[in-house]
Design a protein that fits this description.
Radius of gyration: 22 Å
Number of helices: 11
Number of strands: 10
Helix content: 40-55%
Strand order of the largest sheet: 2-8-3-4-1-5-6-7
Shape: globular
Strand content: 15-25%
Distance between the termini: 62 Å
Number of domains: 2
Structural class: alpha+beta
Order of helices and strands: HEHEHEEHEEEHEEEHHHHHH
Largest sheet: 8 strands, antiparallel
């Protein structure tokens, strides 16, 4: 790490700097190609490019819909993965997966001052801690990170300084400095499809819906999945989970195209009107793809061994499919017929 590393990142994070300051995730991995790194973090290469700055604006423009984007670059033997206001590549299981056969590290913070700094190697998280706050280190070897933190106190009350020190940790580990113009470089970009989208934790929470308590059974799960597939024009065959991911990626690519940065009027009222028109633009194909993804995932979930998990995931995905095409009025009477 160069002596001026922290000051370098303070400058990049300042109000007129070039890196996102409110919420940012930067992950580094040694020796992997951009293609391999993106694939490992559930973001297969799309063939598209974007700047980090544009990717952030695009994700914001998609709100309230979800549009997780990551940009990637290969510098001096390391691949960098960055997301403006994204968290996926800072999750322990993702960083661990990225580190199989090598070493990876990640830094994340958001506007509410949630933060995380993580080091992983050979598929294991060695050390992790919240660098804004006083939480103790966790991981298989909490002190493994210590040599890379020398001189970094994380005590300066200035928020930029906290975050700049976290980025300096990545520079010390990798030897790679994020260039001042990096956020404006056109880089490989991809959408992230989180595996938890189709199999969220605690599927048993979905056994009680709209006042109806369901008795777990594979038959009920099968009927829920069949109803979802029929409602959304899906024939559930082939590798179901791969199909669900592919359909959802298609939806995200359509959303990406719809929400690309555009020149907006200077007048505040006209600007709001333009943003509203974009938000309410025709998105039927996008929502239909989301519905198909969840309908296929309902069938996939219905086939797991545990009947409670099978029914929970089938019902969850069936409801998400319906919400995709009609978010304001979801008819749940079909759930009652599963009893």
């Amino acid at each position: 790490m160069r002596p001026d590393a922290v000051d370098h990142y303070v400058t990049l994070l300042a109000d007129d700097g070039s890196l996102p300051s409110e919420a940012f995730c930067l992950t580094v991995v040694r020796g992997l190609s951009v293609t391999e790194a993106l694939t490992r973090v559930d973001a297969p290469p799309s063939g598209r490019t974007a700047t980090l700055a544009d990717a952030g604006q695009t994700s914001v423009a998609a709100y309230p819909d979800d549009l997780p984007l990551v940009v990637a670059d290969h510098l001096d033997g390391w691949t960098l993965l960055a997301a403006d206001n994204g968290y996926h590549c800072a999750r322990a299981e993702v960083v661990a997966k990225l580190s199989v056969g090598t070493v990876a590290a990640s830094v994340y913070w958001n506007v509410e001052f949630d933060s995380n700094l993580m080091l992983a190697q050979e598929g294991r998280v060695l050390s992790a801690f919240e660098f804004i706050g006083s939480a103790p280190r966790s991981g298989d070897r909490p002190d493994a990170i210590r040599p890379y933190l020398e001189g970094l106190t994380f005590e300066d009350a200035h928020a930029y300084r906290f975050c700049a020190e976290a980025l300096a940790f990545l520079e010390r580990l990798s030897g790679v400095r994020v260039p001042a113009d990096w956020s404006t470089r056109d880089l490989p970009a991809a959408v992230i499809v989180d595996p938890l989208r189709f199999r969220p934790p605690n599927p048993r929470n979905w056994l009680s819906v709209d006042g109806t308590d369901l008795e777990p059974s594979h038959e009920a799960a099968r009927r829920a999945a069949e109803r979802a597939c029929e409602a959304h024009g899906v024939v559930p065959d082939g590798d179901l989970l791969a199909r669900a991911h592919a359909e959802y990626r298609e939806a995200l690519h359509l959303r990406w195209q719809r929400c690309l940065p555009q020149a907006l009027p200077a007048d505040p009222v006209e600007r709001l009107q333009a943003e509203s028109r974009r938000r309410h633009a025709e998105n039927g194909a996008e929502r239909a793809a989301v519905a198909r993804a969840h309908a296929v995932a309902a069938t996939d979930g219905s086939r797991v061994a545990d009947p409670a998990e099978a029914l929970g995931w089938a019902v969850y995905n069936a409801i998400q499919a319906d919400r995709a095409v009609n978010p304001h009025q979801v008819d749940l009477r079909w759930v009652q017929r599963l009893t």
